[in-house]
Fold this protein.
Amino acid sequence: MYIGRVIEWAEHDPELRSWLDYYDDAPERDWVVYAMQRHELDFEAEGARPAKSAEEVADMESDPFKFGASPANVKMAKQGWTTAISSLTPSMYNQTRPDLSVPDTSLELEWVHGFRSEDCKSNVRYTASGEMIWHASRVVVQYNALEHKQRFFMGHSSEVVAFAMHPNKRLVATGEAGARPSIVVWDTETLQAVATLTGFHEHSVEQLAFSADGARLAAVGGDKMHNLSIYSWALRKRIYSGSCGERKVLDCCFGEGDNVVTCGVNHIHFWIKEGFNTVKRRGVFGKTGKVQALTCLAPCGINMLSGTVDGHIYVWLGRNCMRSIRAHAGCVNTICTSPHGIVSGGKDRKVKLWTLSLEAGATFDMSAFGSNPSVRSACLSADGTRLLVGTKGSEIFEISAADGSDLQGGPITAGHYAGRVTGVSVHPMKPEFATVGDDGTLRIWDIYTRNLVKSTVFDTALTCVSYHPNGDLLLVGLGGPVGGQPRHKQGHKAVKTKKDGAFVVLNEPDLTATYEARDSKVPLTACKFSPDGEYMAVSSEDACIYLYSCSEDYESIGKCRRHSGPVRRFDFSDDSKYLQSSGDDRELYFFNAGTAQAMGNLG
């Protein structure tokens, strides 16, 4: 009885408690630190989300599938170009009172190509109904392979960057980027939100994880201190919060009971429930593991598994590293456990199967699957016979868990995989469209089958694309490094390339180049052929539009100069005699397509 009182007093005495905490969470000593090489890293883009401008925020918060008085549209109405068109009312409408009401129409989303793979991982899963689920931009996609149809959850106002599957595989939690990001728990059957959690995290919600019983939800924010929150989500109540620290957090996971584990660059923390308190403790690498970036987590019985940059899986018991297993020849990006075993995937383009006691099973090489087959997500189906694999090339494959064969005869979905999609153009004759992006690829898609028809790769980022009115040629603008400018680095300088400002004309059937030139020294922003096919034009960040004659072997006609900033958009009149342009200066100008001379009006 007396000893019990002494222990109770010692636990509550501030000075003694500080010494107990020190020895219970001793500083790192004699631990081996692994010197990570740049080529080994596969997580640099994760959590690197630049602050958006006010215009970008307004655009993101507006509904792209409805017409209305959104903040972006209201601001647009006040821009300088509106005065340029005030005197351009067609003569047939001079005596008619304009109808200023919002059109009674909307757009309906039919298909999303690709998934978010560059800066997110472990985000491709099977649902309880057997559908496949992933996210792209602000949309979460559910795909039914038998019907070849997609359904969408669109309850976010900004990009979805965090994903967690409930143990019942019917509910999903998704988190977004934004100044005051939301976490939404929703039903994959009804596509309706069940609970929305807001008010704590800032900048973004980077990691999400459900507890084993599904009652609690852990979240890690993208703020400077990477704050952790734990919710009783059904009650919409935050029951704990704490700081993970300034080092990047790459995953979070529930361990035994209410304990939570977070890991990231050179650290792993165990958030242990002690009575009514939750205590943060360092993981002890000891002499078994090396201090390095731990990239992913998965529970396995009483143990916790973590993937490492150097290709190992560390096995943790309590908060001690008990075992190190060589799993991959590069960064381990994802680990997923199920009653049928464990799946791991890595930068080495391999998917590996393991027993629940971590005995190695089959290995499947994804090198022949797609354009950038570094594995970012992998999981087993409910019956353990199929594997769903997402790659860094923004492609998802379903393969056999027995022999690794492709069960769908190609990717379930595919898309651009680095930076932005920068240009889209619809074929004037066939049900196809072309896209280009920062990943340096030109892709041709079939509108009806949703499949990728053909593609080609450039050694630079692509900025714009346009079909010739006959459909036999493609015009592609170039500029910037593959992957896009390093937007996640504050105060960065734009990377210049030798192809900045160049353009290339391709034969549409085989995508071979027929003509290439470079008159601008900075990246192009838009490109188009005139409706009659006689003229071709490209606009640039140098505030000019360059006009060419197609019938004269693309001889230069001249430069359209009037803008004071980069030209972003232009188009030709139906008779191909004029073109109009707008840019960052928010002005609208008109030019003669045959002479490149500026025009005060079109009269």
The radius of gyration is 28 Å. Residues 2-12 form the longest helix (11 residues). The mean pLDDT is 89. The longest strand covers residues 267-274.
